[in-house]
Amino acid sequence: MAAFGDGADVTVVAGGTILMPELTYGRLQPARALLLTRTGLDTMRRENGTVHLGATLPVAALEDAPEPLASAARHVADPEVRAQGTVGGNLCAAHAAEAPRGDLQAPLIALGARIRSTGSGGERTQPVEEFLAAAPTGRLVLGIEFEEPQAGAWAALDRPHAHDYTALAVSACRGADGSDHLAASGAAPRGIRLAAAEAAYAETGDAGRAGRDAVRDAKFADDALASTWYREQMLPVLVGRALSQLEEAA
Amino acid sequence: MKAVGARLPRYDGLAHVTGRTTYVDDVRVPRTLWTKALRSPHHSARIASLDTSRAEQHPGVRAVVTHEDVPKNVYGHLEALGVPGDEPLLAEGEVRYRGQPIAAVAAEDEATAREALELIEVEFEEREPLFDIRKAFDPGAPTVHEWGPAFPHFGPHDHRRVRKGDVDAAFERADTIVEGVYRPGAIEHVPLEPQVALVVPEADGRLTIYSCTQAMYFSMGVVAQHLQLPLNRLKFVGGTVGGGFGGKVDTASETIAALLAVKAGRPVKWRWTREEEFLASSTRAPWHIELADAVTKDGWILGRRTLTLHDAGAYTRFSSYGLTKHAFHHSGAYTIPNVHFDGYVLYSNRVPTTAMRGFGVTSVSYAVELHMTRIAEVLGIDPFELRLRNANRIGDTTPNLVVLKDPSTVPVMLAAAERVGIELAPEYRAMTSEPRSGELLPEHLAGAVSRTNGKEAG
Amino acid sequence: MNLTVNGVEARLVSPPLASLLHVLREELGVTSPKAGCQQGGCGACTVLVDGEPRRSCLVPLATIEGARVTTVEGLGRPDDLAPVQAAFHEGYAAQCGFCTSGMLIAAHAYVERGGTDERGAILEALGGHICRCTGYAKIVAAVSAAARGDVATQAVEASYEPVPGEPEVLVKGSPA
Q: What is the ipTM score, two decimals?
């Protein structure tokens, strides 16, 4: 943590799956690099109803985590990349110009996760949405924690190939307190909470209504994976699927 | 004939599965320099100024080349066949597609070569690019080449013509005209092995060129012409290609690497990045194909009018050849007695296009097969039966009057129908490739079929 | 920095953030891992790091100090092939060969950890590997054969000159 300091001029190397192409293609020339290998941050603990994820836990290890995180993790890239990429790196991925990244942001939002990070001003723990809204540069993720949900569900557009980023996915979660939460990947530059859909579902219990309201929180864009039009059509469908799976799982 | 029917192991199979196949990038020659190219960031621009002096003085840089270093800068892949060249090896005065090479650097390592690119000073005056070849003839459309929007060397014409029979009469006699527009798009070949060349200047003055080319003698000719070297100064080593699919028919990396190797007096390797491969390597061409068929209500195609626009990209390369193949195959696997075909090779500010798997023919086959199904739908005829009736048979003639000796349309279609479980009527099941007679030789085909059934050509 | 590559210990001079692919190809001359895309997208550079398949283009050298690295050169030799190598050779699962090294490493790891001949599981294990020659049917068949143990590990020396008087069948297991 001392080596990170306030994060200025420090390039953090966790799994390397996002960073290495930047170095290879000469787009990034780090002044200082901080390797998180063997920092002991690669663990998952479940105790007293709380799940603790270390920042360098490989994405592959999340396949044993609660839903919707497990399903989302299983659909990140391919087995080799999942074994190497980390949950912290995926969370902090700057969204690329060509496609939204950070497939795990939405399930963590739906799970109500809290991010423990360090940087200027020292260590702090804050909700994942707040952490992401502040743009995670200058912060080093140490860990992630959330309460075990009652149930979770995940619905996504199929990817044509393992290496495509998620075009659109919806995470649904019934929290320990019985409240339902919805979030989406691919509906905005980063993972977002579908607040209007959550409210509609809480009020009416109508998944169709929740789906129609979901587009209100979206900031769609055309990119190589899908058009705005297609995402607009599909978001309500995926919200419906995720909620029906959630009811089945609960 | 011992090999027929036997399972022969691939002669290169053991090397492939033990990691011992030597691709160009695997050849190791001491003191090899790395190459990077300065590529145009613009689709269309005038080069106002170009200054490489700072790059040349950068430590670790061993050679920098621009158009001034090329003995014969403008050449064409079909020049040996009489098609005038139009493509500069390194851009001179203007750039016509994004990714076009302007200068290249050979340095001690990749990072140094990349740094040197940053030191090349170049000023552009951007121009409006042309992307949609349908607008190429519009007044005021952006100009790609000063001689006009189309490749001008199809004999006396600026387009490829095919004329057979009397199309006007066919359209007058038709019960229905069926029209369609078909637009197969560009496709990047994406070989897993990117473009790569290694050029070694030998003590005897020869250049040994390790090449991933699919077309060794084309590449040899292209390098010899640009560098103005006799062929006996070039030793090409190739044959092991990490995927090509037509994309390695164009000579892409050998010539600039050779130029740098000569200037530096050192071995030079140029391996493109995947991004360069997508940005600047040639693609399959996008095509615009308009078909209009004169048909009878009982399912005969009396005539076809075709207009094809072929997007060459910024330079001709093999486009005129591809369009000619396209023209000769534009009736598909079917016999049409009266055809009128006009096809244009048009220039755009896209990356130059090239061969890919059935160069020129795949595009027209795509259009023709969709069109046959459309005709069947319009007429309410089974699409298999429509195709079988019009299918090429011995003695039928192609659009360019080749008499067919052994067409395979009928047996292939019958086999396909059987495999997918389509029940054909007995008279269709009994069809063969034998010369037309009886009901399959209607009056409108009588004059179009060779009386010798192709035997004279044998 | 130290690595053990195909059983041989190597002391390395590459910088800490050099990719394992760069170290293998440019420093050690181990060329079976291919630089197909250098951004983790094609699979052709896949090697085993401590027995697990990894994209060598994405692995910074400093993160694997002291690791055991195995490439296709280390899986088997022409006269002593690993089961997946024999299966690929017998089943014509290598076409241009450029993806083959990465495919073999992923397939080897899959078979070694007890993977079955179930198609879906094989597709998942090879999901990050592109064969642009589109030889997937033969590749999947070869991995299935290796998973079943249905391969002769002593491959016949390749010969494309038919020998007079010899039987036509030159690959073991082919129909007589």
A: 0.90
- Say what percent of chain B tops pLDDT 70: 98
Q: For position A9, what pLDDT does the model report?
A: 82
**B192, B196, B214, B269, best to mutate vs chain C, most C CBs in 10 Å:** B192
Å between B7 CA and nearest CA of chain C: 6
Candidates C27, C131, C163, C168: best to mutate against B (most CBs of B within 10 A) is C168
Q: Is B60 exposed, middle or buried (0-12, 13-18, 19+ CB in 10 A)?
A: middle
**pLDDT-derived band at B446, boundaries 50, 70, 90:** confident
Mean of per-residue pLDDT scores for chain B: 94
Smallest CA–CA separation between A79 and chain C, in Å?
7
Q: What is the mean pLDDT of chain C?
A: 89
Query: Which residue from B minimizes the CA distance to A27?
Result: B114
Nearest to A69 by CA among A103, A41, A46: A103
Interfacial residues of C (vs A; Cβ cutoff 8 Å): 16-17, 19, 22, 38-41, 43, 46, 52-55, 57-60, 62-63, 106, 124-125, 127-130
Question: pLDDT tens across B3-17, in order?
Answer: 777 778 888 999 999
All structural domains of chain B with their residue ranges: 30-125+190-274, 160-187+283-457
Query: Could you tell me which residues come within 8 angstroms of residue B368 by beta carbon, excluding any fewer than 6 positions away?
Result: B291, B330, B331, B332, B334
- From C31, C39, C76, residue closest to B274, measured CB to CB: C39
Does residue B458 surpass a pLDDT of 70?
A: no
Q: What is the largest CA-CA distance in chain A?
A: 54
**CATH architecture type of domain B160-187+283-457:** 2-Layer Sandwich (3.30)
pLDDT at A2 over 90: no
Q: Which fold has domain C2-75?
A: Ubiquitin-like (UB roll) (3.10.20)
Contact A156, A166 (CB under 8 A): yes
Would you place residue C165 in the very low, low, confident or very high pLDDT band (cuts 50, 70, 90)? low
Distance CA A226, CA A240 (A): 20
H helices, E strands: number in chain C: 6, 5
Inter-chain CB proximity A26 and B273 less than 8 Å: no
pLDDT, tens only, C124-134? 999 999 999 99
- Cβ contact B283:B187 at 8 Å: yes
Which CATH entry fits the domain spanning C83-148: 3.10.350.10, 3.40.50.150, 1.10.150.120, 3.50.50.60?
1.10.150.120
Minimum CA–CA partner of C106 in chain A = A80
Per-residue pLDDT, A96:
67
pLDDT for the residue C153: 54
Residue B1 is predicted with a pLDDT of 58
Structure confidence at residue B268 (pLDDT): 98
Q: Please tell me which residue, B311 or A121, carries the higher pLDDT value.
A: B311
Q: Identify whether the C-beta of residue A32 lies closer than 8 Å to the C-beta of residue A99.
A: no
Spatial CA neighbour of C162 closest among B21, B11, B240: B11
Res B452: pLDDT: 54
What is the CATH number that goes with domain A10-249?
3.30.465.10
Q: What class does CATH assign to B30-125+190-274?
A: alpha beta
